[in-house]
Request: fold
Amino acid sequence: MKAFVVRKYGKDGLGAAVVPKPTVGLTDVLVKVSAASINPLDTMIRNGEFKQLLKYRKPFILGHDVAGVVTEIGSAVKGFAVGDEVYSRPRDLRIGSFAEYIAIDQADVASKPVSLSLHEAAAVPLVALAAWQILVDRAHVGPGQKVLVHAGAGGLGSTVVQLAKHLGAHVATTANGRDTDRLRALGADVVIDYTKEDFSQVLSGYDFVLDSLGGKNLEKSVTVLKPGGLAIGVSGPPDAGFAKQLGLPRFMKLPLGLLSRNIRNAAKKRGARYEFFFMQANGPQLRDLAALYDAGVLQPVLDRTFPFDRTLEALAFVEQGKAHGKVVITMD
Reply:
């Protein structure tokens, strides 16, 4: 089958290849890929940013989001049948949606939202799971809380804005001014044009901040938190909790903790906290999220689609920061 494979870490390490069709394990479903979508995590994995923590054996197929049709099931699979339309964010070390077929553990798969096409559904799994795990599982966002979401026009940011509003929060976001109307339609109460205003000068007293940019933006983010508030970073720096999540040896907690020491201390001085977030595959949560899409609570935000043979072009488009929403790769 055709696939896009990482043969070496680095910007030029990803290329087209012909590889064997995946074999199906006892608890696997084999999915014929209809569409996949691009995430910043794809470039991070391609570049080797997590190579000391996630031990991928090269060559490996890239791609973290998928929607398609089940063509084969393992003998121990329950709840799925050949012909089912599904979507998934496969677990780490079993990614590979930039291909014609992918074998996925049934625990990571769910029936796609009925209201979405397969192409739309491919844009959903990673960002929807991340939004749920950040807002519900980690931050416990509820009615009346004040939430700041950076990069609200992006795939993750636009999903977090919608879910935070559904949870009853007052939602502020940063974005280019041209996206203001679209973000207000998604539920944002305050849209700050980062090209004209510094959010840290106009916001204060926030319960939660989601930062996807890192660096100086993260440093300024903790200044808008009230005592007891929480800032979560998805671009880093990682913390000791990340080592625990990946099941790494205890001695790895110290070096990872040191990477985030400065930002954790800055948050602590304000009586707040900083945590790093790295999402986990979860089929049951995808089933719950499908219901929210079908109810109209959430909607995918797509920028554009690329055919499969232009996957490298699609990845570059996202990497250059040109996308306003998810970029989808189509196989059909």
User: Anything to note?
Assistant: The mean pLDDT is 94. The two ends are 15 Å apart (CA to CA). The longest strand covers residues 28-37. Residues 7 and 208 are 39 Å apart (CA to CA).
